[in-house]
């Protein structure tokens, strides 16, 4: 693409720091830094950035429509298994109805784009809206698959469900069997829209690419791995010597860090992290145990405080979910090891950010940890068998037991891997080298 000619429109439900939205903001800022005329359209604007535009709220629906919508929402627990976290479906994200129309989106855009990238657009736009924009402007569309919702019927993660490989018939996430037809109908609409609009998908890891190729939505479409878009200027290793003191932790302490925006979520695996701490206690030398601080960041901290009462007597520091990226960057640098116990995740972004901060990672084989291209055993951390908390505890213990020379070598390798393969600079190269006209060609490989 040519920065002097191309205009890139990016869609997202909101603009803010933290979580999956941070990836979107990194994409926008990276493209603008390269001179691309880039605008971000959102449902809800939080920042004062001049290139972010809030799409006006659609006209208020009729009283009957509002009543039916509230009635449907009140029965959501009877419809979807989100409550027990066996599945994670965006039931309200079905394609059978639009939230924001293409007319509203088009009238808000500051230009006619030459490319649209649709990111996290929950309760904002769907593929029906995107297809209409494609027809209006004759513009290629890429869907950013930071999670699996893009190439499934409506699920954030799929666990062991194979429905997205065919047509999402008899969706197991929907309790009310009579309502399952809506999911398969939605899937069919999504497939027609993606086929007609020849939409491609941007993914963050080969794990995601494998899942996307299994989906009937994208098995014959363009799938481009553009990486993690991590800001390695922000997430760096320059303050590791002072970071512990910022959190009131002794400089000779050994810090184990984990965190998540939704720390209670089953797929984030905090329950496995807690079990690994038991294994860690058993494997550490007594003189090292008293130096270990466990740093836990996320929501529901008070609930977590109750749970750690039954854990080994390490020093614990619990902090609320960190929205400030600069503070989060220091948190990674304060840690000697970052633990990612996620069960299913297309990223996770925190793994890439930790590596960029020079912090080794221990985790299960999911997302960017799946193929061990980034978290390399013995070099930048350890990938342990799924759900194996004994291995996880042993891997953490091994890193904490390194002498200074061995640890510094591992930390340096983490930073090198991140800057070379996970940074916005790497992703920009992938973006600039990608021929978006391929979206209109048959993929035979």
Task: Explain what the structure shows.
By secondary structure, this protein is of the alpha/beta class. It has helices at residues 21-33, 63-74, 76-79, 102-108, 127-137, 180-197, 206-214, 240-246, 270-283, 286-289, 301-307, 325-334, 349-356, 389-400, 404-421, 424-433; strands at residues 7-15, 37-45, 52-54, 88-89, 115-118, 141-145, 155-157, 200-203, 223-225, 254-260, 292-298, 315-320, 337-340, 361-363, 381-383. The strands form three sheets. The chain has a seven-stranded parallel sheet, sandwiched between helices. Helix 11 links the parallel strand 11 and strand 12. Helix 5 packs parallel to helix 6 and helix 13 (349-356) crosses helix 15 (404-421).
End-to-end separation in angstroms reads 23 Å
Q: Residue-averaged pLDDT, rounded?
A: 88
Describe the strand arrangement of the main beta sheet, using strand numbers: 3-2-1-5-6-8-9
User: What oligomeric state is this?
Assistant: single chain
With helices defined by DSSP (H or I, 4 residues minimum), what is the helix count?
Answer: 16
Query: What is the structural class?
Result: alpha/beta
Bulk shape: globular
Query: Which stretches are poorly predicted, pLDDT < 50 over at least 5 residues?
Result: none
- Radius of gyration, in Å, reads 22 Å
User: How much β-strand is present in the residues?
Assistant: 15-25%
Described by strand count, sense and barrel closure, the largest sheet is: 7 strands, parallel
In helices, the fraction of residues equals: 25-40%
Number of strand segments: 15
């Amino acid at each position: 693409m040519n920065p002097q000619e191309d205009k890139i429109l990016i869609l997202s439900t909101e603009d803010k720091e933290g979580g999956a939205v941070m990836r979107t903001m990194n994409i926008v800022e990276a493209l603008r830094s390269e001179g691309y005329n880039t605008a971000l359209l959102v449902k809800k604007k939080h920042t004062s950035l001049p290139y972010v535009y809030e799409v006006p709220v659609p006209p208020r629906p009729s009283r009957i429509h509002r009543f039916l919508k509230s009635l449907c929402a009140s029965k959501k627990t009877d419809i979807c298994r989100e409550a027990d976290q066996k599945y994670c479906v965006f039931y309200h994200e079905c394609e059978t109805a639009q939230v924001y129309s293409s007319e509203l989106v088009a009238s808000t855009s500051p230009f006619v784009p030459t490319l649209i990238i649709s990111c996290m657009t929950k309760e904002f736009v769907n593929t029906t809206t995107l297809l209409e924009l494609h027809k209006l402007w004759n513009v290629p569309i890429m869907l950013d698959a930071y999670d699996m919702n893009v190439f499934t019927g409506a699920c954030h993660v799929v666990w062991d469900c194979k429905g997205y490989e065919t047509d999402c018939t008899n969706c197991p996430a929907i309790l009310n069997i009579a309502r399952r037809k809506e999911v398969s109908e939605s899937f069919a609409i999504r497939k027609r829209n993606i086929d007609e609009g020849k939409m491609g998908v941007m993914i963050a890891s080969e794990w995601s690419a494998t899942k996307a190729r299994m989906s009937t939505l994208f098995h014959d479409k363009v799938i481009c791995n553009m990486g993690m878009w991590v800001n390695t200027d922000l997430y760096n290793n320059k303050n590791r010597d002072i970071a512990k003191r910022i959190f009131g932790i002794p400089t000779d302490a050994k810090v184990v860090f984990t965190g998540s925006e939704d720390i209670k979520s089953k797929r984030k695996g905090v329950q496995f992290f807690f079990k690994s701490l038991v294994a860690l206690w058993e494997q550490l030398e007594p003189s090292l145990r008293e130096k270990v601080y466990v740093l836990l960041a996320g929501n529901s901290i008070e609930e977590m405080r109750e749970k750690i009462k039954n854990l080994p007597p390490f020093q614990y520091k619990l902090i609320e979910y960190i929205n400030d990226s600069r503070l989060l960057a220091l948190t990674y640098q304060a840690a000697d090891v970052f633990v990612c116990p996620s069960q299913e995740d297309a990223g996770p972004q925190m793994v890439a950010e930790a590596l960029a901060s020079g912090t080794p990672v221990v985790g299960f084989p999911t997302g960017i940890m799946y193929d061990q291209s980034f978290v390399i055993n013995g070099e930048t951390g350890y990938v342990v068998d799924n759900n194996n908390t004994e291995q996880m505890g042993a891997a953490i213990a091994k890193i904490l037991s390194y002498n200074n020379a061995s640890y510094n070598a591992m930390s340096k390798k983490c930073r090198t891997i991140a800057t070379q393969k996970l940074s916005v600079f790497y992703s920009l190269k992938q973006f600039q080298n990608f021929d978006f006209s391929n979206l209109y060609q048959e993929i035979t490989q």
